[in-house]
Specification:
Layout lengths: L1 H16 L37 H7 L6 E9 L2 E9 L8 E9 L7 H11 L6 E2 L8 E4 L8 E7 L2 E8 L9 H17 L3
Antiparallel strand pairs: 1-2, 2-3, 3-7, 4-5, 5-6, 6-7
Length: 196
């Protein structure tokens, strides 16, 4: 037992006497204040689900628009959807207009406008054409019509993606300028009617 004690005393004496040198270890301090790693919350959205107009309210704001045949509001995680179909009756040659709206609410790390832009961009179909005319919103496009009986115009406005289907009640090519002109006119009226 004595040899170990002597070795320990010798090493300790050498360290104290300067026989061994060591670099001092810096003292680490920890702050008790929390460090914010999140970005500030986005500002208010243009379209809020709580105050978005109902289908009958939209119909009242657009002169000559037939009554809403059906209205289907939907709520999801950070989203609000509304589908309004306006027509006097089915299959009698009268125009039929459908408005689909999806509103994107702000979330902790992204604004409703960013989420709407992403959804609009990701929803683009092959064969779709950007609308170069005067249209509602910041961007608009004509999806590939395929064999549909109506013209469909999709547009983006801040935190909303809106889609207007327009069937004039006459047999028209959905890619024709006549059909698109009617759809664009209706889309502008509906867009104006939903403004906050």
């Amino acid at each position: 037992m004595r040899p170990r004690r002597i070795i320990g005393v010798t090493i300790t004496t050498m360290a104290l006497a300067g026989g061994c040198t060591a670099t001092p270890v810096p003292t680490v301090t920890f702050s008790t204040a929390p460090v914010s790693t999140t970005t500030p919350a986005p500002g208010p959205v243009k379209y809020a689900s709580a105050s978005f107009r109902s289908c009958p309210e939209i119909q009242q704001k657009v002169p000559g628009l037939p009554p809403a045949l059906k209205a289907e509001p939907t709520l999801g995680s950070g989203e609000f959807g509304l589908t309004c179909t306006f027509t006097a009756s089915k299959n009698d040659g009268t125009p039929m207009i459908t408005l689909d709206v999806i509103l994107y609410e702000n979330q902790q790390n992204s604004s409703g406008a960013e989420r709407a832009k992403l959804a609009f961009t990701n929803g683009a179909q092959a064969g779709g054409v950007k609308d170069t005319g005067v249209h509602p919103g910041s961007e608009a496009r004509w999806p590939d019509a395929g064999v549909a009986a109506s013209c469909r115009l999709e547009f983006l406005d801040e935190n909303a993606v809106m889609v207007t289907w327009y069937n004039s009640g006459k047999k028209q090519d959905p890619r024709s300028e006549e059909c698109r002109r009617g759809a664009r006119d209706v889309a502008k009226q509906l867009f104006d009617a939903v403004q906050p």
